[in-house]
Structure formats: structure tokens, C-alpha cells
Amino acid sequence: MNLSFFIASRYFRSKKKRNFITILSRISMVGVAIGTMALVIVLSVFNGLEDLVRGLYASFDAELKIEAVQGKSFVVDSEFLSKINHVEGVEIVTEVIEDNALFKYKDYQHLARLKGVSGNYLDHGRFQEGYVSGKLDLGTDSQPRAIIGQGVGFYLSIDIENEFELLQVFYPKAPRNAGTLDPRQLYSRNVIKPSTFFSIDKEFDDNYIIAPIGFVRDLLNYGEKLSSIEIKVREGQRISSVKKRLKAALGEDFTVKDTDEQHAGLLRTIQIEKLFVFITLSFILAVASFNIFFSLSMMAIEKKKDTAVLVAMGAKTKLIKQIYLKQGAIIAFSGAVIGLVLGFIFCLIQDTFGIITLGISSSVIESYPVKMIWTDFLWTSIAVIAITFVASYRPAVIASKVKSTDL
């Protein structure tokens, strides 16, 4: 066994006298354990929230989405769609027309996003996460039906069981005659039957109504134009690989976004929050590690005679430093291992039983989600090592200055 480690471990495990310094060392170890456990738990919760957001958004968004680089729409013909369909890995191609519209139900009005989709939209496996009330059905060309966000339904007081009341949709248009006094020339109007409510996320629930693309194309007068094209990737194919093939096939005039890129701002916000939480808790862990500094400093004073004996026996300055550095490492390592294990056990229990709830009524999730990633354990360990070295270095330097004449 390494001599410096042997002496440091003897100092840490000594049972001859339980003095204040020994108690302080144990307190330091507990402080490191609690700080490490808190880091692991909080980072795992952020991972769980990020995965939850991805899962919810993936239930509404396409795996890949094609949009024009310039403008909000682009002309599509059969040749263009055929080119996309022939890209390796593409399973379903859904045409989309999307724009803002005014909705009216009885005496209530609400401005929301009208999304027209082709008939294979639901084949993407939409709304697997979240809550759905009613039958997922877009109807037919002659009898179109709307899938409505629960928030929009609340604002308009929509009753999907009422077979006689229809949802009115208004879309502004440029008048053919600039001097017309007829308000009907200023907008297009049509009606559709509400059939289903969905609830995924407030952003979607409060802003989206989904309808057949034929209904929306006629209302918005889009002709052969589309707002976007949504792609479902064939099972067994990597989304990133299919994305690269689509980019190569479509050229620079179109963007191809995966689910993360469609909500890059939100996911980046979660990651930044996670980073700042990590920094904040690491700082708190550093403050807790001051106990290591004080305990080692006091130990250096208490063991001054022992150190002088070692120096008289020929111990070099390097050995003395290593003893106290390793003493601090033992304290921190013991606390870190305990904290990592407790954090792992707590996250495992939370993931299995959901003992800590969100405290709100939710159809999506009832308890805090957690997801453990090995890199979080790695960075937590690195933070503990760095903090321990800083806390232990000064006491080690002080101890190494003891001379044999101090006996």
C-alpha cells in the first residue's frame, strides 16, 4: 500500500479519540454526500423533463419536416412529391397547409392555427402521448371533421356531442375590388364539424385545430402550394441518415428539420437551465467543502508533532503534502460514493413508484419524471474531485512546512 495513503487512511479511521476534528471530518463527508446526491437527483429530473418534452412534441410533430427557406409556402407538383417518396427511408409523406384563422362557435370567437393535413396524417402515430377525447377522425371531403386542441375547445365552449352546431372558420383575403363595401369580400368562410379534443402541451392545446387539407386549401385558396411536408421515417432507418438524404435531394431551397430542431429554442432553454443548476449546486457543494478545509487545517495543527517525526525520519515535503491531499480525497470520495449511491436509489424509486408528485392535476404525467445518464454521474464526480483538491491543497502546504525542529 502507498505510504501516504496508508497514513491518511489511518488518520481518517482512527478510533483512539473522537475529538472535534474527527467529528468535523465526518460532517464534511456528510456534506459532500448530500451535495452529490442533490446534484444527481436534480440533473436526472432535468433529463426526465427534457425527455418528456421530446415525447410530447414528437406526438404532435413530424419526425422530419420540410419547409421552404424563403416564404411561408411553396409550390408542389407530383414530380416533387415523387422525388421525396423515392428517398431511401421515407415511409409516409404528409402534405400540410397551415395558417392563422378566426374560429367562431355559437357566440364565442378565438384566433388559432388552422392546420390542414392529407389523409395519411394519423398514420404517423399521432397523439400517442397525451389525452384524446372522441374519435380521431378527419372525416371525408364532403363531411370534414376537425381535431381540436383542448384549450381552443375551452375558449370556444365547443360541445363535440352536439351534432347540430358547427364550427365556423374565417380567413382574410385581399378584395378583388379595392373600393368594395361588402364585408363578405374581405374574408373566406366555411364550416366544419368538431369531432375530437386533444391535449398534449399548452402550446398546442391553445393554438391548433387540425382539419382535412382539401377543406383548408379551399378556404385559404392555396392552390398547388403547401406550407410544409411532414415525413415519417421507415422503421429501422436512422432519422439523421434520412434527413441527410432529403437535404441532398431537395437542395438549398428547403430546410429539413427533425423534432429537436423544430423546438430548438425550448430544448436549448432546458439545457441552459440544467447547466446553471449544475453550476449553482456545485457552488453550494464547494461551500459545504469548506469543512474539509477547516478539518484538514486543524488536523495539520494537531498532527504537527507527528509530521515533525516523519520529517526527522527523512520524509520529504512531497510525502507530507500527499498525506493531507489524500486525507481530503478520502473524505470527499467517501461522501461522493455515498451521495452517488443514494441519488441513484432515490431516482430509481422515483422512476418506479413516482413518490413525489407534481402537485397538479395532469392527464399527461402525475409525478416528476427522472432519467439517469452516466455523464451526469461523471461530471458530478469530476466536480467533487476538483473542489476537494482546492479545499485540501492549502492545508497540505501548511503541513509540509513543518520542520523536524518543531518536535
Automatic annotation (TrEMBL):
Highest classification ranks of the organism: Bacteria, Pseudomonadati, Bacteroidota, Cytophagia, Cytophagales
Transmembrane segments: 20-46, 275-296, 328-360, 372-393
Keywords: Cell membrane, Membrane, Transmembrane, Transmembrane helix
Record family assignment: Belongs to the ABC-4 integral membrane protein family. LolC/E subfamily.
Keyword Transmembrane: yes
Localization per record: Cell membrane
Name of this protein: ABC transporter permease
UniProt topology in membrane: Multi-pass membrane protein
Domain called ABC3 transporter permease C-terminal: residue spans: 279-401
Signal sequence range: none
UniProt xrefs under InterPro entries: ABC3_permease_C, Lipoprotein-release_system
UniProt keyword annotation of Plastid present: no
Predominant location category: membrane
Species of origin: Belliella marina
